[in-house]
Amino acid sequence: TGNRVVVLGAGLAGLTAAYNLMRHGYDVIVLEAQNRPGGRVQTAREGFAHGGHAELGAIRIFETHEYTLKYVNEFGLQLTPYDTGQRAYFVQDKRFLHPPQGTAWPLDGFGPGEQPDPGRRIFEILGAGIGTLGNVFDPGWPGSVPSAVELDKHTLASFGRSAGASNTLLEMFYAQEGRCGEWNAAAVLAMEAVSFGNTPQSIKGGNDKLPYAFAAALGKRIKYNTQVVRISQDERSVRIGYWDRTGRHEIRADRCVCALPFAPLRHVSTDFTGAKADAIAKLRYFPAARCYFQTRGRFWEKDPLGPLGGVNLIGTDTMAGRIWNTSSQQADPRFGMIQSYMFDTDALAYAGHGHRRVSRMRTLIGTLLPGGQLLGCAEKVWQEDPWAGGGWGWVRPGELTWMRPAMMRPAGRVHFAGEHTSLWIAWMNGAIESGERVTQEILAA
Ligand SMILES: Cc1cc2nc3c(=O)[nH]c(=O)nc-3n(C[C@H](O)[C@H](O)[C@H](O)COP(=O)(O)OP(=O)(O)OC[C@H]3O[C@@H](n4cnc5c(N)ncnc54)[C@H](O)[C@@H]3O)c2cc1C
């Protein structure tokens, strides 16, 4: 009939495309390797008492995430505040509360002009970078803006150093935002420019309610436990080879939405050539891990440091990365939930502890937040997930200018979606935006 579309992957990008194409009257089928929808939106409930839950992937939704919020509203889901308390730090072996604006930080090694207000210095440096981005919504960005091409040559850390930032200033920044120094400066500053917000929220009861709502609307159009192994096409159709429990099969369609992260796509046999094949081969995925402990009570309210009650985040320069207090999201107020959220070398170090990693984390958190009782645990190392390959797409310096158009551009009858093809890398908003973009591409075709 000319309107069959096969969608690869039931993460938010694939689900958004399938849902919108279905509503436009397309005959849609979604192939998903796992037995659940959502991909990197994964809520853990097992191992926790009294209805506790933990987000292994996506947690925060900001007021700027218009695509995510659109579907949260459309499916009638409720939001709950995420980050309401103040912050504390454990850096250079010192524990302290977030110093008030304009007050010196008790750390050694700051450079000239960084004290007494290092937070303001960080904003100045990031603001200067954001000022060179130009119009990030221009279809030719960053190639169309010479200063953005220049920024593309840097990591965030090398950009900061070129602006005079000391190692202490960078460490302080990582304690607040995670170890993100090796991200491409143009990619991460563009992402900050479009997604920065002040009032993070999550979906009440678990973020996986969003992909499950899409999945309910799509019904039997989603085939789970179905691994895509081949994509081929001629001038009339696309053919997708896949394995399910009954063996190897092939499906023919008029168009295909490929919403697989490039890491697992590298294991699919394809005929893509040129920059598209290069991008698939070269896009790296960022190491990211989360480790949660349910707690009896909210013991840090009695912390000897003083008013740690109400602290929502402890930024550290240890393997634990950032320790978030996500207790406010839990149904039962008698229990708390804390998590260590690790990036890059911290996530690699954690994974490197193998089967002892949870007990190592238990000990480390016991040192940073003494005196509590840690109960059940849920954890995930994203670079170990074969269907994701890491937390999110991660371009090297110099790659964004050629790789961004190469990732987004259709290849014949195959259209590409996924957070990596969007400005909002590492956000659900990016996955959903890309699902809407490919829907428009297919409608136009
Ligand atoms: C640790 C972490 C923290 C995050 N924090 C936030 C946050 O706070 N807020 C936020 O908005 N976002 C956050 N994100 C980002 C957000 O989760 C992602 O951007 C988004 O979910 C990606 O959706 P996607 O559809 O592009 O990819 P995915 O969700 O990865 O979907 C791809 C799908 O393809 C399937 N697949 C892969 N290979 C095959 C194959 N061969 N055959 C069939 N199916 C296959 C996978 O199983 C998966 O279901 C976080 C992500 C991580 C990992």
- What percent strand? 15-25%
Main pleated-sheet profile: 7 strands, mixed
How far is the N terminus from the C terminus? Answer: 15 Å
- The count of helical stretches stands at 14
Describe this entry's structure for a reader.
The protein has 445 residues and is of the alpha/beta class. The chain has three domains: 4-40 and 208-285 and 393-444, 3-Layer(bba) Sandwich (FAD/NAD(P)-binding domain); 43-64 and 79-83 and 200-206 and 287-384, Polyamine Oxidase, Chain A, domain 2 (Alpha-Beta Complex); 103-195, no CATH class. Helices cover 31% and strands 23% of the residues. The protein contains 14 helices and 22 strands. The strands form six sheets. A seven-stranded mixed β-sheet has the order 7-6-17-18-19-16-20, sandwiched between helices. Helix 1 (12-23) links the parallel strand 1 and strand 2. Helix 1 (12-23) packs parallel to helix 14 and helix 5 (156-162) packs across helix 7 (185-195). The longest helix is centred in the C-terminal third of the chain and has 17 residues, at 428-444. Bound molecules: flavin-adenine dinucleotide (FAD). Flavin-adenine dinucleotide is lined by residues 8-14, 31-34, 39-41, 57-61, 227-228, 259-261, 264, 268, 288, 290, 382, 387-388, 391-392, 418-419, 426-431. Residues 8-14, 31-34, 39-41, 57-61, 227-228, 259-261, 264, 268, 288, 290, 382, 387-388, 391-392, 418-419, 426-431 line the site of flavin-adenine dinucleotide.
